[in-house]
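Q: Give me a backbone?
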Amino acid sequence: MAELLEYECPCCGGKIEFDSASQAMKCPYCDTTFEMDALKNYSDIMNEQTQDDMTWDVTPGGEWQEGETAGMSVYSCNSCGGEIVADQTTGATSCPYCDSPVVLSGQFKGDLRPDYVIPFKFDKEAAKNSLRKHLEGKWLLPKAFKDENHIDEIKCVYVPFWLFDASAKGRIVYKATRVRRWEDNNYRYKETKFYSVIRAGGLRCKNVPVDGSSKMPDDLMESIEPFNYSELQPFNTAYLSGYLADKYDVTAEDSIDRANQRVKQSVRDEIAATVKGYDTVSQQRESISLQNGTAKYVLCPVWILNTTWNNEKFLFAMNGQTGKFVGNLPVDMGKFWRWLLIFSAILGPIGGIIGAFLG
């Protein structure tokens, strides 16, 4: 029995038929013709695309040595449920995320021991100065954000991160076009040529960070990136002296989806950068796979300011290693409407003058 082959038009997606007049395959929808060999080669390439293979070996962190956690205590927040770790010299403190009081809940036990730590390079005064600069020139900022008592509430905390390493390979198929336009005395012409562009390549992804704290917004942590991971130090409890450390509550396994998103986007960006010389490019299919995917548990230094305005909480963060400062600011709507009325009063007469001239 003869094999019935059906092909999809690479240009418009219609079903291609054999055209006896041209002795070639032809799309009845866009009138594009294809040589059989070229069409079969294209179909084979599209059909051999495989599913993504994003398998990780996530067994980071070691065990705490005997006596290593003897001077460490766990403090719990009754408001947001967060837990932070500090040495036993820490007195009364508040949650770095919601600013509620925290209470001593007991001796620190269990959980994975961090593999590495990035020590703080910037002190509290530097963080306060960065906040002041962040607030400068903001006319519509509520007064509460400029008060010194809010600035003094800034806290330092080691935030848990999972760093993912892997070798990634990607294969992506694009649909691309080149368009040529010209005209004569009678007509304007447009010629569009369609191409199937296939790219494949590899990328070594190292230290892809994923925030291991559910209380810390991922977008805020990604905004203060990058950390300089060449300065990773083997973990030692001495680095925690005088600082707070958040206990991770998002496991490495639960962080895989976010790591996959970041790795895939890096592969897409690298491969897409090689597709040049076309007027339009759209991705059709992709397959991305990993090899030797591993994760390690790291504590990263972050200065945090948490404050409230109109019952809405605002969280600011500064990279404790590089000094990068980020955070969204509220708008004092009272100031906004006052300024709007002032500008309207000024622009009203000017608009009337301009209208008179134009009339």
In short: The longest strand covers residues 280-309.
